[in-house]
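Sample 3 of the quickstart, ligand norvaline:
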Amino acid sequence: MNHFINLKDISAKDLRKILIDAKKRKSLRKNLNNLDVDIKAPLKGKLLIQMFEKSSLRTRLSFYLAIKQLGGSTLTLRPDELHLSKGGESIQDTAKVISIFGNAFMLRTNSDKKLEEFKKHLSIPIINGLSPSSHATQILSDVFTIEEIKKKPISKLKIAWIGDSNNVLNSLISASIKFSFKLNIGCPIAYRPNKKILKYIKSKKNKILIYDDPKKAASGADVIFSDKVISMNDKGNKTKKLRHFKKFRINKELIDFAKRDCIFLHCLPRGNEVDDKIFLSNQSKVWQQALNRIHVQKSILLYCFGKLR
Ligand code: CP
Ligand code: NVA
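Result:
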């Protein structure tokens, strides 16, 4: 059994195994419907329990289809209906019950500490479906999408992130280290990654560069990523932050600094950090990116169940 919380804690070899499995499984589903089950139904009879403490559209739907396609099923809990929140039931007891009734637990949470607490008390795998510091399932799936579109290993590509130093970027930084790709980060000085992450970047040498000029960050990129300036856990002054990010908006002028065949990715939902002209262009691969969450999460589930081929 394996947990899937942060990319930095999973070996590069296992991450690659997940991507290889996802590619194989995706190619075998060309003529199947969304609810058709993969040959051999490897997770037949298994229940994935999901809980969302924050809003979700894609993660919710993609995990639902992922476990279904593997032959299992899912149940989504609302945190406000459990005793855990208002009734004072402990994480320890909640985790025990979830482990008795379910076979894996996917949690989207406001607290990284809560993920660790659940991990400690569960006897089944836990998957991080987004936390304040990480969005690991999203970024592993994005690596898959990039390699699928570019038809080469991500280690041969230059990736640019133009946006806030948030959970999605943290996972992208970890991916850059695990998969050895060049990463340019473009963000205002006041919104750079925190000290701990800067230290981590420094210790890994040279492949990750941070710019306060978005054009420099975008220069020569094969992929440009962005995300909402204001994330769900943001508590700071939003008007001020949006003002600081004004010149980091993804538009035609900025994307022209990247390679001609550069693609645009965004985990969604979007705010107004990207022009419609780019978002709706052929360069934008955001719908393929969203769809691939299903395929990669299936292989993440198999990894968690110790069933990766
Ligand atoms: N990208 C992503 O995780 O989307 P949701 O918040 O809709 O799940
Ligand atoms: N950074 C965003 C990602 C949403 C999928 C947030 O945490 O709100």
